[in-house]
Amino acid sequence: MTRRHDELNRALVHGMRPVVVELAEPDPAWPAAFDAAAARLRAALGERAHRIEHIGSTAVPGLAAKPVIDVVVALDDPDDEATYLSDLLADGYDLRVREPGHRCLRGAVGDLPVNLHCYAQGSPEITRYLVFRDRLRAHDDERARYEAHKRGLAGREWADMNLYADAKGPVVEEIIGRAGGPPRP
């Protein structure tokens, strides 16, 4: 087993799960699904949610994506689970990742899965997500390059979705770098 597998087994609440990544063509319903998810999060968290943003490929018009709505929420301290986690669990979310400064939960809005990433307000990870999203929205060439890379990785089985994300990492880092975003901490 690799070092990365060991890291994932420590962070993933339910352990690694094999997956075949399938991409869907862009769907104009994705922004409305995010709006519905954000409204539910605002109702569940109130002022504890300092910021709620649509991230990931479904946040980029014209980009093929896994049909999963990715959301980032800024909290005071995601490690202080007692201040928010029970409300998210009551709203149907399931804790999937527990690592210092980050929690990832899985929920749904309608038939679409939602990945909810919780970071501290001001986290460089939030900035990185937004710089990447905005760069893809504004630059057709970057969006096309990223989509081509994703299509090259799709259709095969991965030991876990995080390994697929790792495989996209070099292209993501290049795009964030060209946009002037912060390096990975």
From TrEMBL:
InterPro entries, per the entry: GrpB/CoaE, NT_sf
Protein name: GrpB family protein
Organism: Pseudonocardia alni subsp. carboxydivorans
Pfam family, one: GrpB
